[in-house]
Amino acid sequence: MDPRNPPAHPITVGNALDGAGMASDDRCARVVIAGAGPAALMLLERITANHAAASPGRRLRIDLVDPHEPGGGRIWRRDQSPLLKLNTLVGDNTIFTDDSCVIGGPIAPGLALVDWLGEIVAGRIARPDWWDDALECEARGVTQDSFPTRRLNNAYLSWAYGEVLRRAAPTVSIAWHQDRVAEVDAPSSEEPGTVILQSGKRLEADVVVYAIGHNGSAPSPESAGLAEFAATHGLGYLGPTFTAEADLGWVHPGQDVIVRGMGLAAIDLVVLLTEGRGGRYVADGDGLRYLPSGEEPVLHLGSRRGVPYRSKITSRLVGDPTALEFLGDAFHERIARTEDQIDFDRDVWPLFVAEIITGHFRELFTGHPGRVRGSWTDFLALLRGVLEAPDGCRSDAYRDLVAAHVAAPDRFDFAAFDRPLEGAGECGSADDAEALQSRVRDHIRVDLDLRTRQSNSQTQGMFFAALFGFLSINEVPKDRWTARSRTLAIPGAFKAFFSYLASGPPGHRLEELLALSDAGIVRFLGGRIRLETDHERGAFTASGEAVDASGRTVRASVVASALIDAWLPEPSAAASDNPLLRSVIESGRARELTVADDEHTGTTGELVVNDDGSLPESPREFAVGPFTSVLGGAFSRPGVNGLPFRQHDRVARAILTALDGWASGSVSPRSGRGRAIASSADPYTRELLDAVPGRRARD
Fold first, then answer.
1. Is 160 helix (H, G, I), strand (E, B) or coil?
2. What is the pLDDT of residues 70-104, one digit of tens each?
3. What is the pLDDT of residues 185-239, one digit of tens each?
4. Residue 254 CB neighbours (<10 A)
5. Are residues 339 and 371 located together in one domain of the fold?
6. Are strands 298-302 and 522-534 parallel, antiparallel or unpaired?
7. Is residue 597 part of a domain?
């Protein structure tokens, strides 16, 4: 078989195995994975790579259970609108390890998305049988700085699944069951378990893995109340959901629709209700003009900030590389020395803000020295002193320092960045509603200029500082945080801010939003949005506002017959819409993360797992994904020692360790340019590394 042309949708692989009667007399170990999306795919790759390196002669059966085809799974399935895109660049997407990865297992390089596309276009990899003209046009037109469609990503993930199957040792059998897991009789160290599928089929399992991806959840009390109000008055309401799966047929042309939320879910919603209904964009000078089809509603967008998430940054760093000044090694050493609980808002948020500001100025001083006065070394010393003072970036000392060294267009005002409609800019003297439209449009134009032009690469410096700071904060042992920090501040306001800064849409989506605003199809409600249910009129009402630097407030409001809450469901394992996840909790084999101290008791909604993905109450069961208490993720940028690789490799090795007798054999893993990092408590790792002269596993 040509390694670049595995079967388009392989169901089972295994050269010496037939899945029932095996090639040798020893018992075949069996792993059942509930889910077959990207997280399951990355885990599968790590399991098979570690198995091939350590114990290729041992027999292993892996069953994937998912109603959606392996690779893309539910979220990245191919049968969704071809208009929907990733907010990840083509060049930033791979599921294969590389020499940057510092992991315990072997490095097994493979094609990243951008390389796979090159092979597709050159004809060296076969196109899947469902490939169409739209995908062909996209494949030939994208660059590493393009944002691919979800369908194109599905094609890559499907190929990657086939590649993982091809690489598996002949003693490994892998099967996909187009089904759902209905019930699990958990395995133990003494007895295998049984996984019962909705079809009635039963699978034996020595280890069970829950890789079920993003879940919905039961409606919140507010959402349930809004649904009841809508039903009573014959209105339309759509609560938090996955936009690509939503039925939007009930939204009528010309209907006023309140949209709460201006993140990625809202952007997808706008796409589906405009271009998805036959409208199109044409070039108009430096921007776009929207040509309506007549099928569009009128969308009134508002949120707490009142502006869309910041657009994705497409510039490249040209100055000094990112270095953490406030959240680096010294930060973690201080935490290790103190026994006090860490309050995120008091102890860490100011440091995170300081990192963002420092990242902005580092790139400005070292990448664009002609636009500043003085050296970066001297400015950094002064900046540190100011940012470490009690008022930090809110002080006159900060403003004076920046004004003395940086021209006005390049200065950084964190408060204005965070809340751009509160106390900055000008609202003008026109009608309130129209002044607010202009204010939001001006903000979007400035944001696009800052984040899509190479001359403004200081925004990339800010982004990388925020990203490194975010990852550093996630390395703090979870039991060191106060209960309020762990259940409210970090998963709430901090996560929302990071998404606003780093997880926005591609720039062209905001260009489209401007065109829709000019066409009157999108209206902006502003920030601090307030929603009311008007029982007398039988309608939803919403209003928002903006405040300029002079203190003048402008407002916009609307009365509407439809409301859409455009954000993802809040994570809650216990209230998940996935009955399998709920059943694991109801059985007592798993629990939601609940923490308490003298001041607060709360839950994060996450499923508690150990660092290796195992369930504390049931060590032969594992979980990976966004519903768990351990940060992981799926996909990664190549060459950055991505967290998804480290987490999935750790889980894969723990799974193999849990399968009795799998710690035999030896291999010299090539991890992190020759370094092997793993837990000394991991017998699978110790078995591999102890066989290599001069090496030992270390924490």
1. helix
2. 999 988 899 999 999 988 889 999 999 999 999 99
3. 999 988 999 999 999 999 999 999 999 988 888 899 999 999 999 999 999 999 9
4. 10
5. yes
6. parallel
7. no
Instruction: Kindly give, in sequence order, each residue whose CB lies less than 8 Å from that of residue 368, ignoring residues fewer than 6 positions away.
Output: 318, 319, 410, 455, 457, 458
| CA–CA distance, 372 with 361 (Å, rounded to integer) | 10
Mean pLDDT of 584-609: 90
Count structural domains, the chain: 3
Q: Residue 427's pLDDT is what? A: 67
Q: Is there a single domain that holds both residue 498 and residue 514?
A: no
Tell me if 678 is assigned to some domain: no
Q: Is residue 6 part of a domain?
A: no
Domain range holding 443? 329-502
Q: What is the mean pLDDT of residues 521-532?
A: 97
The predicted-structure confidence for 577-589, as pLDDT tens digits, reads as follows 899 999 999 999 9
Tell me the three state secondary structure of residue 602. strand
> Which residues fall within 8 angstroms of residue 176, CB to CB, at 6 or more apart?
10, 11, 12, 36, 63, 64, 65, 66, 69, 70
Which residue type does 408 have?
A
CB 354 within 8 A of CB 325: yes
Considering just the CA atoms, what is the radius of gyration of the chain in Å? Answer: 26
End residue of a domain, out of 502, 528, 557 = 502
For residues 156 and 280, membership in a common domain is answered with no
Residue 481 lies in a domain: yes
- Placement of tokens 């940012």 in the chain: 387
Supply the DSSP symbol for 323. -
Give the list of residues 6+ apart from residue 428 with CB closer than 8 angstroms, or none. 435, 438, 439
pLDDT class for 673, splitting at 50, 70, 90? very low
